[in-house]
Amino acid sequence: MKLPIDDLLPRIRDEFRRSKCVVIEAPPGAGKTTRVPPALVEFGDVVVLEPRRIAARMAARRVAFELGERVGETVGYQVRFEDATSAKTRLRFLTEGVLTRRLVSDPRLRGVATVVLDEFHERHLDTDLALALLRRMDVRVVVMSATLDAAPIAKFLGGCPVLRSEGKMYPLRIEYTPHSAAPLEDQVADALERILKEGLDGDVLVFLPGAAEIRRAARAVERFGLLTLPLHGDLSPAEQDRAVAPADRPKVILSTNVAESSITIEGVTAVIDSGLARVAVDSPWTGLPSLNVQRISQASAAQRAGRAGRTRAGRVIRLYTAEDFHRRPAADAPEIVRRELSGVVLQLRAMKTGELEWLTAPPQAALEAANALLDRIGATSEMASLPVAPRLAKLMIETARRGVPEKGCAIAAALSAGERGSSDLLTLAESPWQPQTRRIFDQLRRIFPGRDRGGDADALQALLSAFPDRVARHRRGGDLLLATGGSARFPDCRGEFLIAIDIEERRDRGLPLVRLAAPIEPEWLLDRAVERTALEWNRTAERVDQVSSLVYDQLVMEETRAPAAPGPESERLLAEKALEADVARFIDRAELEQIRARAAFAGIAIDEKRALQELCRGKISFDEICGLAEALRPAKLDRAAPERVRLAGGRSVKVNYEAGKPPWIESRLQDFFGMRETPRVAGTPVVAHLLAPNHRPVQVTSDLAGFWERLYPQVRRELARRYPKHKWPENPLAQLRD
Asked: Does the pLDDT of residue 311 top 80, yes or no?
């Protein structure tokens, strides 16, 4: 059964008297954010987790207004670097990270009776962490969302009740837009013109990815003469209030996804949805969070569309096709399965929680990578209390210790805000900043006050402690070797060693490109470098070398090499390379083929690999490998398949062996005079090539006796005519006795 939110409040109170948790489903604009938390104060202090700073601020202001108070009295908010609460505050709206940092110092949340997880469907990292921790604590838990599969959460919390609220939703007309190559701001202007032509009855809410797109769209729609107001997290509270407050004329509110949930903007009857949002991702190189423009899910599109139907029938223009919409994922994957987890793991270490049960288990590989990083940078519990990523927390602690807190805060602010400009970090940190960077710097300086007593070298050594795995060495022409292995390009490189802080992967465009770096001195790496001695193959000299290196991770800082001493390892490497080069590299190929053919004829197996390995004993180079032919010719091979045979005339001739053929010999015909039978090898008659004085064969036979009897008389007459100076006896068999 679905009830209006005010009618649902008594049921929530009743459930809380029987149970410690409840899950609430309520559509956008139903009032859950501002109505449910105040109703729970009767059970004790309430903390509400909001996914964004603007939602926390505006919800606190709305509830305080309804109570007739100012923010900071009964109702307050606390976001990163800003605390609008007091000792009288009973209801606190917090951003998620604020709560998890509080749990580091106060694991039991003393004084808090109820924690409300608002807009849980967004599944931010800190929200999942909070849910896993709260499940084990003695506090009441409320999980609220507009688009939520409540059953798994209710089961995770031990089978708690699920309550559903109805919202006043008017009909929506949803229109799609053909694909356009026009700039986004021009597409927004075209959609707004369509709405105005049909008559605007209310305000228009435009969803855009970020502040830059909002500024461009504001310029594009100013010709329509409407009140155009931006709405995003970097605006001042007064500017945010102006965007959502009623006005005396129609408004065009240009908003990021902050207006997608948690905030109800009265009077909106039309929505223009770009279908895009800046989504938190982690750089695979720095590990620091950043915002990338991505296509939103179907669930987010439904949330956005719902903003147009709160007070009357509404209209939605999506700046993408229906086919595009249906190809989008139904919902976004939880951050815990796609984000870098070092911040979460650091908080768990600081709280000493042990094993946690998660609603969605984090990937094991991500946990292992996070633990490895924290171990590498020497993470401490102090770092978990700082409102920055673990690397930046390490940087700030180290810069403060080295007497350069101002430089540390400047570098951390520039990195945290994603400043762009110079590729040199120190130059970037000293350049004019965006307003957001200035705010972060001022807030960090309140945590780390004091003036700098050191210089750039102190700041850079502190930076190295935060990014010890990002060291690189300039090889030549802007090419870098990375301590993690692999290479990158940095055309602006000046020094030899540097920290490659941010690298852009360039698909199909060559090596990754370094976008931000800082120079370091090689001596700063010595305490982390190790000496290694290894045997390596010198391809040019074709020998085994002993290489002595000073190595930082996979980066060679210094190296000397010399011929290795003979030994088992150098022999093994030499044999390995010799076999790669092929046995024929160390023996005349014709001779090798003869040995192989002789062995095949005799049926004797020869182990060429073993013979080559044996020849490598006590040696380190190819030049020393000799005698392979002798090693391949065992004594039994000479007996079974001799290399030579002696003829009757005393001449020794080579026996030729070919695979699949009988052995053969060749010599002048006169050398065979006196031989009645053809010579034999292992009992097999050889094939005799009988040559004339000009060394051309006059007969090929394996039956010498038959040749003398049948063919020799005719051959004799021909040879005697052509070569009269040679003796051609009538009886060649008697010649030996004459």
From this structure: no
Torsion of CA 44, 45, 48, 54, to 10 degrees: 140
| Cβ pair 499, 436 in contact under 8 A | no
pLDDT in tens, 645-698: 999 888 999 999 998 889 999 999 999 999 999 999 988 899 999 999 999 999
Same domain, 237 and 127: no
Q: What does the DSSP assignment read for 421-433? A: S-SBHHHHHHS--
Q: Do 25 and 134 lie in a common domain?
A: yes
At residue 150 the predicted structure's pLDDT band, cuts being 50, 70 and 90, is: confident
CA nearest to 412, candidates 99, 96, 81: 81
Position 735 pLDDT exceeds 60: no
CA nearest to 22, candidates 164, 130, 129: 164
Assess whether 332 and 283 both reside in one domain: yes
d(CA 433, CA 443): 15
pLDDT band at 156 (very low <50, low <70, confident <90, very high): very high
Angle between helices 568-581 and 608-615 (to 10 degrees): 140
Asked if 425 contacts 412 with a C-beta cutoff of 8 angstroms, the reply is no
- The one-letter amino acid code at 174 reads I
Considering only residues 299 and 666, tell me which one the structure prediction assigns the higher pLDDT.
666
Q: Examine the domain organization and report whether 74 and 188 are in the same domain.
A: no
- For residue 567, give the DSSP letter: S
- C-beta atoms surrounding 292 within 10 Å: 11
Look up the domain containing 679 and give its range.
644-722
What are residue 280's DSSP bridge partners? 291
Q: Are strands 487-489 and 479-482 parallel, antiparallel or unpaired?
A: antiparallel
Domain end marker among 337, 371, 387: 337
Model confidence at 289, pLDDT cuts 50, 70, 90, reads: low
Rounded Cα–Cα distance for residues 335 and 342 (Å): 13
The span from the CA of 669 to the CA of 691, in Å, is 5
- Phi then psi for residue 225, to 5 deg, are 75, 15
β-pair partners for 543: 538, 621
- Can you tell me the distance from the alpha carbon of 474 to that of 555, in angstroms, rounded to the nearest whole number? 11
pLDDT tens, residue by residue, 607-652: 999 999 999 999 999 999 999 998 988 888 888 999 999 998 889 9
Q: How many CA within 13 A on the CB side of residue 499?
A: 21
Q: Are 549 and 531 in contact (CB under 8 A)?
A: yes
- Count CA atoms within 13 Å of residue 712 on its CB side: 20
Domains in the chain, number: 3
**Per-position DSSP letters for 613-666, written without gaps between them:** HHHTTT--BGGG---HHHHT--HHHHHHS-SEEE-TTS-EEEPB--TTS--EEE
Burial class (CB in 10 A: 0-12, 13-18, 19+), 568: exposed
Q: What is the CATH number of the domain that holds 307?
A: 3.40.50.300
Which pLDDT score, from 0 to 100, does residue 509 have?
Answer: 67
- Strand 555-563 relative to strand 314-318: parallel, antiparallel, unpaired? unpaired
> Quick one: pLDDT band at residue 89, thresholds 50, 70, 90?
very high
More confident site: 48 or 17: 48
Alpha-carbon distance values, 104 to 84, 98, 368, 381 (Å): 21, 10, 21, 8
Residue 349's pLDDT is what? 92
What are the strands, taking DSSP E only, across 325-380? none
Amino acid identity, residue 571?
E
| 643, 654 contact by CB (below 8 A) | yes
420: left (phi over 0), alpha (psi -120 to 50) or beta: beta
Share of the chain above pLDDT 90, in %: 66
- Cα separation of 228 and 250, whole Å? 9
Of the pLDDT bands very low, low, confident and very high (cuts 50, 70, 90), residue 736 is very low
Place of tokens 């709305």: 62
